[in-house]
From TrEMBL, chain A:
This is cytochrome-c oxidase. It comes from the Bacteria. SUPFAM superfamilies: Cytochrome c, Cytochrome c oxidase subunit I-like. It catalyses: 4 Fe(II)-[cytochrome c] + O2 + 8 H(+)(in) = 4 Fe(III)-[cytochrome c] + 2 H2O + 4 H(+)(out). It is a multi-pass membrane protein. Its EC number is 7.1.1.9. Its cofactor is Cu(2+); heme b. It comes from Echinicola arenosa. It is an enzyme of class 7 (translocase). Residues 536-700 form the Cytochrome c domain. The keyword Transmembrane applies. Keywords: Cell membrane, Copper, Electron transport, Heme, Iron, Membrane, Metal-binding, Respiratory chain, Translocase, Transmembrane, Transmembrane helix, Transport. Its main location: membrane.
TrEMBL record, chain B:
This is C-type cytochrome. PROSITE patterns: CYTC. Gene3D superfamilies: 6.10.280.130, Cytochrome c-like domain. Residues 273-311 are annotated as: Disordered. It comes from Echinicola arenosa. Residues 193-272 form the Cytochrome c domain. Residues 1-22 form the signal peptide. The lineage of its organism: Bacteria, Pseudomonadati, Bacteroidota, Cytophagia, Cytophagales.
Amino acid sequence: MSDALLEKFSYDNKIVKYFGAATMIWGIVGMLVGILAATQLFLPEANLGNPYTTYGRIRPLHTNAVIFAFVGNAIFAGVYYSMPRLLKARMWSDALSWINFWGWQLIILAAAITLPLGLTTSKEYAELEWPIDIAIAVVWVAFGANMIGTLLKRRERHMYVAIWFYLASFVTVAVLHIFNSLALPVSFFKSYSAYAGVQDALVQWWYGHNAVAFFLTTPYLGLMYYYLPKAANRPIYSYKLSIIHFWSLIFIYIWAGPHHLLYTALPNWAQVLGVAFSIMLIAPSWGGMVNGLLTLRGAWDKVRVDPVLKFMVVAVTAYGMATLEGPLLSLKSVNAIAHYTDWIVAHVHIGALGWNGFLTFGMLYWLWPKLWKTKLFSTKLANTHFWLGTLGIIFYALPMYVAALTQSLMWKEFNEMGRLAYPNFLETVLEIVPMYMFRAFGGVLYLIGALLMVYNLIKTSKIGTFVAEEADEAPALTKHVAQKGEYWHHVWERKPIFFTLLATLAILIGGAIEIVPTLLVKSNVPTISSVEPYTPLELQGRDLYISNGCVGCHSQMIRPFRSETERYGEYSKAGEFVYDRPFLWGSKRTGPDLHRVGRKYPDSWHYHHMLDPRTMSPGSTMPAYSWMITNTMDHEDMPDKIRTMQKLGVPYPEGYADGQAMMDLEKQAEEIVAGLSEDNIEVLPHAEIVALIAYLQRLGTDIKKVDAPTDNSLAK
Amino acid sequence: MKKNKFLALLSLLGMASSSVFAQKASGEGVIAALSNMDSSQITLLILIVVVLGVMVLLLILMIYLMSFMGAVLRKENPELANEPTWWESFNEKYISGKYQPIEEEEEIMLDHSYDGIVELDNFMPPWLKYVFYGTIIFAIGYLVNYSTLGWGKTPSEEYKAELEAEAIAAESRKALALASIDENNVEFDQSDQVLIAGGNIFQNNCVACHAADGGGGVGPNFTDEYWIHGGSIKDVFTVIKYGVPEKGMIPWQDQLSPEEIQQVANFILSLKGTTPANPKEPQGELYDPEEEGSIESGEDSAAMDSTTVAS
């Protein structure tokens, strides 16, 4: 190649530095919040006595911080460094890069403010309210546009496998985010999901599962395909394996969402599809692990000494473990035991701490010295980080597995009289409290390791000099001359738009086949005539329940097992949730299921229990919600909520919101207040507790109304 | 090499014999079974054991001889020495695949580098390929099982089966159990044994609403003489068993056995006259055990109870 054809250009390292620094900062924040949440599970007083830092609100803060802030920034840092180098072209637009950076940080900040305030949709990993959702979509598209622009002016004809993964991630996350976030706003901070009950659950877990797939997995596989061979200085083991596992992974992953809803009211055919495709995911997932580990063939001597490679090897291994465990958990018999327990928590943390965390650490340890043209400040410190992190993962995961099995078996055990051996749910919680302490200790170890890294990398940047613009040169892309016998996939690799469209098609099929029939075919959700919309006060109480993140610990989905129906009552039916926007089935039972809690205890029980749970359930680990007694709600937004619900098809009477609704609300509140005063409890009718009691007492009672109509029916 | 094989053979024999010993050690039952056999059966058994033993020995010998011959052949014929063994070729074909030696990697290296990263053109490891095929076959079988064949049970069918199994178990429990306690035959019994057991049940289940000393709270006070639903042992038993859902008292019949309900009901009656820390005001009607007749429920046994209460 003659020098005359070489074009000179430079790479933007500043954006990489910024995203890298943001990764570290948010990583530390996210882990700290995680430790706080973990502590509250054995020490409820650690909620600091206010609603903003109580478990139900900081759990989503933790998950959002580590997924979207820590991992999200790491993806951007990794992509903004590797993509221009793989394409021999500077990122398309500096402006878009910075919109991406500052936009994303603002979104995170908005999340960190709104979630503790209780502004949430309560849909897992999609908790943020609609204005933030729109901002996410805009910034994400800016990121995608920047990638596609770079592809269009690339100097490298073919796209390397890392870029396939980046593109698929971009497209899929956009599709998932938009469809799952569809909602009708009530006000700037409140909206109701476009889907109800079973449908909402299916769309949510199509999203939730694939957020794991296309936010935590595929972008990271792309990063692995760049940083692992770079750090090991070894060729990628198999190009063919890359092709097979890329396409099979993105095609199959999208189908597996329903495995989060096994034995629920989701139609059985969707559950069966979810299981079948989850099992088929094993080999495509392992393709990534195998290609990564075999790339290290001949470099294992380096793994012994290089902390970067150590982190990466454990990351890839953790990925392999989690992606085998996932399909096994989706087998119905295993799921019957594991669902709602800490097993799932352990499983996701093998992925989050092992795969995402360790790959990020490895990448940063590799990147920082490159950006500052120097050597890592201290390899010894990095090795210490590695061991602390590894120990942290073990101390986290093992107690969680023990806790999960112990508790699940206790839930399911019957005595020789055919009764539940542990009818008191609390007994099964207290049994595993020591395990929660170990878990928090594991988290602390992991955090200390991460802090060591931050120190080490700051020191590294101090001893080097930052290269903001890194110069490179490459020949311009010439007109392509078709070659005969070119490998079919190699042809695709030089057609980025075509490639992206194919990937989009691959990810749309599974979702469409599962979701469209569930939305459109009526028989999938058999209606129950006695199920009616919530009364205005109950609706307000439900929104309080949502706002306080109660769903983080309490499920509302009784599965058809005798061990559950004996404990909670009749199992949950699809038709009971048709007015639930959003659905509140939950995914974890730190406390008991609440779907049939309605009319189980007197109002005064709930009053005392919310004031101080330990007076009603001695030893309970639930935090006190004493402020609900004194906080009052102005119900001004209620008529708008009713109107929004009507637009979504909830059959409130015509014009109900114009006056009747408020009268009904006041009437029901007065009734509850009068009932409480009989037990010498004085509370204002507009107190939060009144609305909450109204909602809790309604839960799961509609199907019992068939023979005895109660006062829950709306004024018609 | 040879030595190793010999050692392996020895250890194999050792394992076989030790397992025989192990069987003897736990062999009381075996001996009993043997002594019940007639002579022709024993002869047959011995014959079978001997034949099986000989077959195993012959197999081991064959494998050993073959590997020995293989080694000899290889030594005599250097060309054969490079031939892969049966296991090596199986492994290469179906499990690990053929690894290109690292020194010869260039041969399968794709002629392109992306920012310095090159790719090899290795095949997907066979074991992974077969895992993939296996899972696809499983998935197809799974789908067919739950759809066209309809053999797989839906969750509600599984639940139905679980209920049926429990119904049968409940029947057999009923048949086994002595006359079960219910509200008609519950007994007033203030023995220590009953009160201690009842006290434990009370502490574990009732104190949230009725206070640890029975003084009441959400629920009524047990220490006074006023009862909302009657104060006889039968009344208390009935309230505990079936609950009073409209007033918030939950039914306990799914959580406590009839015997346990009897114990805790007796414990509750033993609280009368004690002085709780924060007594709730009396609720319901004054219950006088002497005037048992005024309460419409069962006459004779309750009357007997009341006399014991009075004493």
